[in-house]
DNA sequence: CTGAAAGCGCTTACAG
DNA sequence: CTGAAAGCGCTTACAG
């Protein structure tokens, strides 16, 4: 890293040095606009709010003044007076997981159409950081929050919040939590995936990843057991391995089920990044998913189809979930706290090569 | 998608319905705190600001009142009066590219230590959306902006902004742009990567991806040509393929250089997602990176080492760049617009299997 | 449609 | 350390 260099105020290639700062000039306000346009302050305010009360000619004069003076609307002042804001906070447990990024992009897109600005914060599964972030967002006047709670979040802590502010939980919810909820049909998705593995003849099917206490895991595990029972298979506890929901977690969980006296021949993973860890672990051992072990993920992130072999997964439409979470929250903000909703989204099995049901070249 | 269901106010499993909204209660302000703590408004303000002027006993009484009343500090009101904010805006061209997510995570981390809240917005390479986002962030009183400008951004448009607000450009800068700049040493990194390919005996080396007008591409292409010249190789224009800096772009560019009368045997890709597209395209053709074609990416995102084969790449430390961009911007905010800085970060070649220099199992 | 007045919740001098 | 006063930039009734 020896060549890192810092060149204060210098030129890099064609880059130009900043000019001296503009003279400390007073902020342009609606009073200035009013004066220049020859109207009252109130009229300017009406124009800014898009009121139909103002005649076209005056409206044009106001906009002219706005452009000429380089006026910037001060939303802080406006919301101080009106007690309304257009800020939406996103509190995400792990943005390094591409699935949550897809969720965030969906939320962001939904905000675009509503003139709402999304704040985003990554808690990194840290409940202390999560509490800080939520406090900061409240202090900044967020009109509502979309939360993917960190592992270990206490519902009671958040209920104190959700009783005062519209909150929507996305993907993850909490036992005894209050607020809107937008989640995929975890149980159904897991059941479908497991049933597929059973139909391929597997009898030692593992469930890999997720931590105890995570409702998402409980639900997916329930669907997993449903399908085992339907296929007349026993649920061996040794095949239900807890692990952090990330790549290293997947790798560790794989090692565990391969080391059993009766190793697993197939696995449903808690999510796609766990499955990617499993794929990676297989490659390290000279094994191949779809041939030596059937692997299915959950989420169907964009990366899934690019794995070698392409990863079979349960598609939950992350961006769509994000859009719906935003829509639910915006409705809740508009309608008041009592308007919480629950949305259960789809969970479709997308079969690719990693589960061994299709040739390696398919699903690409 | 038939099973998607919306259940307003209903129960999902253990989830509880929200209680009726709390009675519309007046907001708790510092006046309430002052009254309860038996001090003046000014004293509360001093305590909130962490001033050492207030005696410990009073400070404790104030904090007690804050907890008891559930007071939430109103940053909007504070910044309206003080004309200062702790909001930092991030304007990112493409958050779906994991590299920019790494950058954003670095920025976020740097903000944590400074009580600064980062806004994030994804422009999706859309200059119109970018302009909207920047306006909105200004209206919300952002103290400064970190911008990864969208392809096609006009420097003149942004200079009107950067003359009024501290701005740091991360990864991408603009011809004639003003503001701080934090970028890796693109030219050196590309030269190293290309020299490595030449040293392996390749004589038909392609440069794939990036769009005309992108400075990053110009710089990487310059390093590419440097290394070709040093190796005594001619720069064949047919081997310099423009393409969007994403996976489909990489795939399309690969098709082009494989279709030439004298196909390329090696390629340096504009960035890792382009390289991943190339890897994917090779797999589709039954070809293998590292054996049938040497492939090197740029950025070294976390995904790179998980490819099959693992991707050789030029590591630029995305999170580190993000942290430095934030540090530069925060200094600039503190010191005034004239304090713009330029930082050139490292660009180290990380050799893995995709360029054919090491066995496939290494670099995992 | 317009104008004058009040007030959102805070910080900032300023006099005690 | 404390208290009273002013003001940040806007919106909101309210009377014309």
Description:
2 copies of one chain form a homodimer. By secondary structure, the first copy, chain A, is an alpha/beta fold. The first copy, chain A, has 3 domains: 30-73, Orthogonal Bundle (434 Repressor (Amino-terminal Domain)); 87-184 and 319-344, Rossmann fold (3-Layer(aba) Sandwich); 186-316 and 348-355, Rossmann fold (3-Layer(aba) Sandwich). Chain A is 40% helix and 16% strand. Chain A is built from 12 helices and 13 strands. Chain A has helices spanning 30-37, 41-48, 56-69, 75-82, 98-112, 127-139, 155-162, 186-199, 215-230, 247-258, 272-284, 318-335; strands spanning 5-8, 87-92, 117-122, 144-147, 167-170, 180-184, 205-208, 240-241, 266-269, 294-299, 312-315, 341-345, 348-350. In chain A, the strands form 2 sheets. Chain A has a 6-stranded parallel sheet with strand order 3-2-4-5-6-12, sandwiched between helices. In chain A, strands 8-7-9-10-11-13 form a 6-stranded mixed sheet, with helices on both faces. In chain A, strand 4 (144-147), helix 7 and strand 5 (167-170) form a beta-alpha-beta unit. In chain A, helix 5 (98-112) packs across helix 12 (318-335) and helix 8 packs parallel to helix 9. The longest helix of chain A has 18 residues, at 318-335. Chain A starts with a strand and ends in a 14-residue tail after the last strand. In chain A, 53% of the residues are buried. Chains A and B meet through strand 1, helix 4, helix 5, strand 3 and helix 6 of A and strand 1, helix 4, helix 5, strand 3 and helix 6 of B. Strand 12 (341-345) of chain A pairs antiparallel with strand 1 of chain B, so a sheet runs across the interface. The first copy, chain A, binds a DNA duplex (16 and 16 nucleotides) through residues 27, 29-31, 39-43, 45-46, 48-49, 53-55, 58, 73-83.
């Amino acid at each position: 890293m020896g060549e890192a260099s810092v060149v204060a105020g210098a030129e890099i290639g064609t880059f130009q040095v900043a000019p001296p700062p503009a003279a400390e000039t007073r902020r342009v306000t609606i009073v200035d606009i009013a004066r220049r346009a020859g109207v009252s302050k109130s009229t300017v305010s009406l124009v800014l709010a898009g009121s139909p009360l103002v005649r076209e000619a005056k409206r044009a004069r106001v906009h002219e003044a706005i452009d000429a003076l380089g006026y910037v609307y001060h939303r802080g002042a406006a919301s101080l007076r009106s007690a309304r804001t257009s800020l939406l906070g996103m509190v995400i447990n792990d943005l390094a997981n591409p699935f949550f990024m897809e969720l965030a992009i969906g939320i962001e897109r939904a905000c675009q159409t509503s003139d709402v600005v999304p704040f985003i914060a990554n808690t990194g599964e840290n409940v202390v950081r999560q509490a800080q972030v939520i406090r900061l967002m409240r202090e900044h006047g967020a009109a509502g929050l979309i939360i993917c709670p960190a592992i270990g979040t206490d519902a009671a802590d958040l209920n104190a919040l959700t009783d005062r502010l519209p909150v929507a939980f996305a993907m993850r919810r909490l036992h005894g939590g209050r607020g809107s909820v937008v989640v995929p049909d975890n149980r159904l998705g897991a059941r479908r995936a497991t049933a597929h593995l059973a139909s391929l003849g597997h009898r030692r099917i593992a469930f890999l990843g997720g931590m105890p206490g995570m409702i998402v895991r409980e639900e997916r595990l329930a669907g997993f057991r449903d399908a085992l029972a339907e296929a007349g298979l026993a649920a061996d506890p040794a095949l239900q391995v807890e692990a952090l929901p990330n790549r290293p977690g997947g790798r560790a969980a794989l090692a565990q089920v391969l080391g059993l006296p009766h190793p697993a021949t197939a696995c449903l993973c808690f999510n796609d990044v766990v499955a990617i860890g499993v794929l990676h672990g297989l490659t390290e051992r000279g094994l191949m998913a779809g041939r030596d072990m059937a692997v299915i993920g959950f989420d169907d992130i964009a990366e899934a189809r690019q794995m070698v072999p392409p990863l079979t997964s349960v598609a939950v439409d992350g961006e769509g979930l994000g859009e719906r979470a935003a829509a639910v929250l915006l409705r809740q903000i508009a309608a008041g706290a009592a308007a919480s909703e629950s949305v259960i989204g789809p969970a479709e099995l997308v079969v690719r090569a990693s589960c061994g049901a299709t040739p390696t070249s398919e699903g690409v």
